[in-house]
Design brief:
Helix content is 34%, strand content 26%. It is α+β, with helices and mostly antiparallel strands.
Length: 410
């Protein structure tokens, strides 16, 4: 069977439970602020983490669990406080969160992952974190509302939850992946996204799972940018509990390709939703580079286009200022021939070519305005030097982005 998107969330695969609720981490708020994901059996895990040298305490703890233990059963998430730039005391808070959860669930602390997001520089209020864990465990459920609560409880400046579930076939059986993420600002991943958690009932070799996750992340989450700021807390974790009872995927095979396609579908969907929900954004801005000699060239060019502040501002203003895109391509560091380059804008309103062989075309400004008005815009860039291509996702740069981040702490 082909990959099929189904109604479901993080607890869609067999053996996974979820919960999300308000623990009251930050006074004066009403939002859900803690979440938990639990597998009824130990799950093989893989993860990708921020390459920012300033790594949050949860990132350090999870890296240790992923790369030294390789197995986990629970994930605990809090919002409002990032537990970053908190030194050894902050790491102890992360470890204590895992230990308290483990004791309550009858696990080892090394089998509990933790994640935090919010304001940098403050320690966790451990009394509230422990209270939240005490509330989360009895709330764990397989039902749809629990998945919704979990996806909602990890959000910060996001305007809506981001979740997906897909079905596909492995070893003749119906397999499932569930995934959630959060991210709206401080988005320029160099590993994965702000926070993303993925579950599956597939049995797969640990090293192969890590390799597959990295490959998929590099073409999805790593191709997103909202503002050029790589977070201290970027984390993407997948848990595979094997309850599908398929023949374990241990090498290159048709089953691996099916699994990879399903994982890509889930991660691409979430990545695009992060870009579309960028802080203050009104438009999803996609760059599709074709005709490249290799993927890396196409990747660099596409990412440069959607991270350009001037290009993003032009998309907000519905201005077909193709010179800004050419400029962003030119300083990207990728080698290409500007005098061979074609650029078009496309949307639900049609397509308009604005550059032909490196020169502006005599396009209609009125038609361009019409095409740049919908909430999803694509810049199609053909450098005519090969058959490789890449896609990157960003958003427009608006007044509201500045307003949101000017008073973020308050």
């Amino acid at each position: 069977m082909a990959v099929k998107i189904i109604d479901g969330g993080i607890n869609a695969p067999e053996g996974f439970m979820a919960a999300g609720l308000r623990a009251g981490i930050k006074e004066g708020k009403t939002n859900k602020d803690m979440a938990m994901i639990y597998s009824t059996v130990p799950a093989t895990i893989a993860g990708t983490f921020t390459r920012n040298l300033v790594k949050a305490a949860p990132v350090k703890w999870d890296s240790k669990v992923v790369f030294e233990e390789g197995s986990a059963q629970a994930v605990v998430v809090n919002v409002a406080i990032a537990n970053a730039s908190t030194g050894a005391p902050g790491f102890k808070d992360a470890e204590d969160t895992a230990a308290y959860t483990a004791e309550s669930l009858g696990l080892k602390k090394e089998n509990v992952l933790v994640a935090s997001t919010g304001v940098i520089g403050f320690r966790l209020p451990m009394d509230k974190i422990k209270k939240g864990i005490d509330m989360l465990i009895p709330a764990l459920s397989y039902d749809r509302q629990a998945a919704d609560d979990c996806a909602t409880a990890i959000l910060t400046t996001d305007t809506h939850k981001k979740e997906i579930a897909v079905e596909f076939e492995i070893d003749g059986k119906k397999a499932t992946i569930g995934a959630i993420c959060k991210g709206s600002g401080m988005i320029h991943p160099n590993m994965g996204t702000m926070l993303s958690f993925i579950t599956t009932d597939v049995a797969i070799d640990r090293d192969l799972l890590q390799k597959t996750l990295r490959e998929v992340v590099s073409k999805t989450f790593n191709m997103v940018s909202v503002d050029g700021d790589t977070s201290t807390n970027d984390t993407c974790i997948i848990l595979a509990n094997g309850l599908l009872k398929n023949k374990k995927i241990e090498g290159e095979s048709e089953d691996l390709e099916e699994f990879k396609a399903a994982l890509y579908t889930a991660c691409e969907y979430l990545a695009k939703n992060i870009a579309k929900d960028g802080e203050g954004a009104t438009r999803l801005f996609t760059a599709h580079v074709t005709g490249a000699p290799d993927y890396e060239t196409a990747r660099i060019l596409a990412k440069s286009i959607i991270t350009s502040s001037l290009s993003k501002a032009a998309i907000f203003g519905r201005d077909a200022n193709c010179g800004r895109i050419m400029c962003a391509m030119g300083y990207s560091g990728a080698e290409f021939d500007p005098e061979k380059t074609d650029i078009s804008f496309s949307s639900s309103e049609g397509v308009i070519q604005v550059v032909k062989d490196g020169m502006n075309t005599d396009f209609s400004e009125e038609e361009a305005l019409k095409i740049l008005t919908p909430d999803e815009i694509t810049a199609e860039c053909d450098i005519k030097s090969g058959s490789a291509e890449a896609t990157a996702w960003g958003c427009d740069l608006t007044y509201d982005y500045v307003k949101i981040n000017a008073d973020y702490r308050s």
